[in-house]
Input
Amino acid sequence: MRLCAEGLPRWGAGLLLGALLLAVPPAVAQSLFGEADGPAQAFTIGYVGVDFTYNGDARPEPTFEFEGPVVGVRFARPGFVAALAYGAHTQDGADRRLLDVTLMLWGEWQPFALATQSRARFFVPVVLHSGYRRVSRPGADDDLLEAFEFSVLGLGTGGGFRYAGARVGIEARATPAVGLALRSFGEGTGLSTFVEADVQVHVARVAGRLGLSAGVGYRLQTWNGGGSGFLAGDFFDYRGEQRSFRLGVNW
Output
């Protein structure tokens, strides 16, 4: 496995960078509902449908395609989301395992304000995205031909809407972004583009401080990882879609 200057794998360095950025407060650090006594965080678990396919010109052997449901968990607070998806599936007679980790940190800019008493607001999120994806056979080594393993560090901006009711809050956000795709072993740096859309609904204080949260999400992402020595330039070109449905608690 290729190590960075500090002795960490590339994917570890990328995720560590995202974690360290938690110390930087978002531009709008408020409760999910915009109320002083509203919940400030939510934890959910649910279904993630994954469609991860080769996107190059000449189909190589092997490929690391994965199509099927996995389990996802997600922690969210104002300006921050951490999500993990993991599962196994048999694709074309071969077992595959998928691990996907995402960290997103953003600040919010409000280009215009509605009426002072309005519970609705529009905002522009400016997002720093750190992600890691590995697709491999169970027990596979960290070898160039044994796994698809990339870290992505990207920036993006988009649009969002929030409604802050007395006990019910709704948030919607769509964010296109572009970033560097770093292969975790071997040589190679490429490009990744993606669009993520997410809607979540929060009901506060259902049982004491605990409330209920539900959400749906969609992500379309491409990886253009480039070749390495004897490998074709599109060997690690993949396209992935994710659709998630989740339910959990807020507090």
Residues 1-9, 19-31 have pLDDT under 50 and may be disordered.
